[in-house]
Recover the amino acids of this structure.
């Protein structure tokens, strides 16, 4: 994931990048569950990822994407990214756990998610930092206020409150930053 352009110095972008890191960590846990042959955990983790991804993409589209569209910036790329949002959402929520190719399909979707995140972090995020003026950042802030990050849910959840065997890792469980950068990629 990008750490070079200075985007992380802009709080709303840093927050979206942090969400990307959390999604990557969740994807890594799904891959581990698939490798372990634990279908129940895999399904629970996919459901969790799909919920976080839906919140994340809604925030991006209502905030950053809307602000860029209002500036007439990056329109074609925004359309493509929004299409990928729709595709990932419908594909993840429409998975058939009994399909013979379930594991391969999930792995392919996680690979697509990794590519999508990279496109945002190397494309739309840097463009927004240099393109959005005061009005654009007000749109982004309004979206952040109306739809807080799912990361805030994890911070308010007490460690150990989740008694489900498919507990999702939180910030106390995550891998090192160097490992996180590759967590969406197949080992």
């Amino acid at each position: 994931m990008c750490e070079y352009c200075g985007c992380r110095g802009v709080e709303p972008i840093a927050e979206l990048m942090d969400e990307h890191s959390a999604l990557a960590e969740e994807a890594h846990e799904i891959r581990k569950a698939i490798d372990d042959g634990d279908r129940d955990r895999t399904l629970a983790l996919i459901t969790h990822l799909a919920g976080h991804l839906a919140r994340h993409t809604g925030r991006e589209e209502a905030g950053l994407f809307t602000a860029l569209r209002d500036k007439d910036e990056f329109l074609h790329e925004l359309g493509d990214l929004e299409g990928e949002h729709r595709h990932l959402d419908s594909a993840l929520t429409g998975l058939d756990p009994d399909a013979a190719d379930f594991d391969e399909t999930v792995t392919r979707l996680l690979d697509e998610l990794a590519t999508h995140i990279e496109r945002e972090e190397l494309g739309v995020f840097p463009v927004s930092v240099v393109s959005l003026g005061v009005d654009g950042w007000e749109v982004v802030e309004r979206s952040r206020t109306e739809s807080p990050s799912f990361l805030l849910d994890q911070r308010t959840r007490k460690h150990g409150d989740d008694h489900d065997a498919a507990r999702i890792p939180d910030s106390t469980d995550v891998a090192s930053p160097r490992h996180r950068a590759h967590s969406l990629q197949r080992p």
